Amino acid sequence: MSKKRGFTLLELLLSVAIISLLAGLSLPVYRTLLSKNDLDIAAVTIAQSVRRAQVLSQAVDGDINWGVKIQSGSIVVFKGASYAARDINFDETFDVPTTIGVSGATEIVFAKFTGLPQTTGTVSLSSETNSRSVTINEKGMVSY
Question: Domain of 106: which CATH number?
Answer without folding.
Answer: 3.55.40.10
